[in-house]
Amino acid sequence: MNFYQTEIGRIKHICYSNDKQIKTVIAARTFINNNFEKDLKLDLLSHLLFTSKFHLLRLFKKYYGLTPKQYLTIKRLEESKKYLKEGMPVSDTCYRVGFETPSSFSTLFRNKTGLSPIEFQKKQFSQSRSKPDSGPCDH
């Protein structure tokens, strides 16, 4: 083993010394990604992963730089953008991604994107119409 491989191993051991922690936070993130539309609480995640909610919160923040709730909110907003681009009504999008009320969804969406969901949707439609057709030209 050369010096660089030794150093990489040493650093990896320091940063990722506990595989169980890594598996726990990956499992938490995976569960959030697969169930973002549901009413997810820290208590539920910690129960499913057999760990305390405070420990899970610290681990998640340590490895991802966000709390599980912050991650969930970002995930829901990203998914909502997909539905809005497809033309789904704002209220349907709101409930589909797990927000409780269209008004709280709209406020959060505007705070994070700078646009209301309707403005975002209109912008997406206007951009898609302004793009030229990429099909073959018939001359």
Automatic annotation (TrEMBL):
<dbReference type="InterPro" id="IPR009057">
    <property type="entry name" value="Homeodomain-like_sf"/>
</dbReference>
<keyword id="KW-0238">DNA-binding</keyword>
<keyword id="KW-0804">Transcription</keyword>
<keyword id="KW-0805">Transcription regulation</keyword>
<dbReference type="InterPro" id="IPR018062">
    <property type="entry name" value="HTH_AraC-typ_CS"/>
</dbReference>
<dbReference type="InterPro" id="IPR018060">
    <property type="entry name" value="HTH_AraC"/>
</dbReference>
<dbReference type="GO" id="GO:0003700">
    <property type="term" value="F:DNA-binding transcription factor activity"/>
</dbReference>
<feature type="domain" description="HTH araC/xylS-type">
    <location>
        <begin position="26"/>
        <end position="123"/>
    </location>
</feature>
<dbReference type="Pfam" id="PF12833">
    <property type="entry name" value="HTH_18"/>
</dbReference>
<dbReference type="GO" id="GO:0043565">
    <property type="term" value="F:sequence-specific DNA binding"/>
</dbReference>
<protein>
    <submittedName>
        <fullName>AraC-like DNA-binding protein</fullName>
    </submittedName>
</protein>
